[in-house]
UniProtKB/TrEMBL annotation:
The gene is ruvC. It comes from Haloactinopolyspora alba. Mg(2+) 1 binds at D7, D141. GO terms for biological process: DNA recombination; DNA repair. The active site is at D7, E68, D141. This is Crossover junction endodeoxyribonuclease RuvC. Belongs to the RuvC family. Its cofactor is Mg(2+). HAMAP family: RuvC. One of its GO terms (molecular function) is magnesium ion binding. It is found in: Cytoplasm. It catalyses: Endonucleolytic cleavage at a junction such as a reciprocal single-stranded crossover between two homologous DNA duplexes (Holliday junction). InterPro entries: RNaseH-like_sf, RNaseH_sf, X-over_junc_endoDNase_Mg_BS, X-over_junc_endoDNase_RuvC.
Amino acid sequence: MRVLGVDPGLTRCGLGVVEGSPGRPLTLVAVDVVRTSADADLGERLLSIEQRVDEWLRSHAPDTLAVERVFSQHNVRTVMGTAQASGVAALVAARRGVPVVTHTPSEVKAAVSGNGTADKAQVAAMVTRLLRLDARPKPADASDALALAICQVWRGAADQRLRAAAAAGGRPR
């Protein structure tokens, strides 16, 4: 399974592609961060994100796009930017027929580190270890995008087995 993880944000939008399956070593395919200027027009910023996500979908051909589920924060401006970037990524994937899944930050942290309240340093350390990298991906948005992709590789395979069992009229074991 190949997954494009998107850590949405207007100033920095992390993109990370991971390939693998549960119980097998994971492989880093690509990682980057789309950066837009806070001084730029909102439409231009969203267009930059749209173009890069579309480019990544075309060039890396993921089976799924995993994006962080937007959650309420104290800073409404931050959550709005996150939601806008998330929506753009989901739209581009849907346009290309790529399924979109969302994961909460705590789901991602638990899947990658075993602790749903892990801090960014712990998540980055586990991403580095799981992908057998020489150094932690930077900035944190890159590491977070990879963590989203890893979470989907592991959880998505389990979800597919459950759906297949339900469709066959059986019960998952």
